[in-house]
Each structure stands twice: as C-alpha cells, then as structure tokens.
Design a protein that fits this description.
Number of helices: 1
Radius of gyration: 20 Å
Number of strands: 11
Shape: elongated
Strand content: 25-35%
C-alpha cells in the first residue's frame, strides 16, 4: 500500500511540474509576442531584402493579404524582389522580413526561398503550422501564382508578374 501511495505521489508531482512548465512557456511566448512589436512598428515595404511594410497593390510579384482576419488590411501587399535570390522570412519576431504580430505565429515561422526561377515555401518548425491552399506544409512546397499561404490568422495570396 505504501508503494502505491509513493508512486501516486511521484505521478502527482510530475503533473504539477508539467503544468508549471506549460504556464512558464505560455508566459514566455506572451513576452516574446510583445517584444516582437505586436501592434507597433509594422514591417516596412521590402526593397531587396529589407524589412517590409504593406503597401498599395502593385503589379509586381508579392504576397497580397486576403480576407478580413489577421493584423493587416485586405489587399495589403508585400513585394518580393524577383531580380535577386532573396530569402523572405515570415514570423512574429521583429527580425523577419515580414513580421506578423499574431500570437498564433511563431517567432521564426516560415520562409520563402527563390531557387532558380521558382519560389519554395518552408515551414521552420512552427507550432501551429503553415498552410498552402488549405493543406499543412510538412516539407518545402513550390509556390505557384495564385496559391494561398496561411500563417496564423493571416492569409496571403502569392501573385503578380515574374
């Protein structure tokens, strides 16, 4: 009987530690979210790899915000400089080219990489996932014009002229 109580005691202590770990992790994510600039210092419009701010629609290649959800207004545009082999990083952190102030977005969530004349989207191990045309990305996926990319509550459409 004493052995059963000892085992139950250790199981209870393990659950308490797991709960405290989750509380501490949630607090840290919240701190990271606010330090990443949630609601302030929106990204600036990209010029060959610089930080990106949503601008007016442009006929060039880029990510257009679609839908009513998310931090950016529908139709906001993030340019992609197709003349260079640019890597576009997306995430909640302020160091990303496209910074998305959303608690469901990881600090470093995803990236778009140009390989030759093609653009590939890679999830960077985000907790809530990256979706292309409604399907969760588990490996690098080639983007085609018209594809939708959903990160957190924000949905982008990859479109424009290459």
């Amino acid at each position: 009987m004493a052995l059963v109580f000892s085992i139950l005691k250790f199981v209870l202590i393990a659950f308490i530690y797991a709960f405290l770990y989750q509380v501490a992790r949630t607090i840290q994510l919240d701190i990271d979210y606010h330090e990443a600039g949630a609601g302030r210092g929106r990204p600036e419009r990209m010029v060959s790899g610089e930080r990106n701010r949503p601008g007016r629609p442009d006929p060039g290649l880029g990510l257009y915000v679609v839908g009513e959800q998310g931090e950016f207004p529908p139709g906001a545009f993030f340019a992609i400089d197709s003349s260079t082999d640019t890597v576009i990083t997306l995430g909640r952190g302020s160091g990303n080219i496209i910074s998305i102030p959303d608690p469901y977005v990881s600090v470093n969530h995803a990236r778009i990489v140009k390989r030759g004349e093609e653009y590939w989207l890679e999830d960077l191990g985000s907790k809530n996932g990256t979706f292309v045309n409604g399907k969760r990305v588990s490996r690098a996926v080639r983007l085609s014009l018209g594809d939708t990319v959903t990160i957190g509550d924000t949905t982008f459409q990859f479109r424009g002229v290459r």
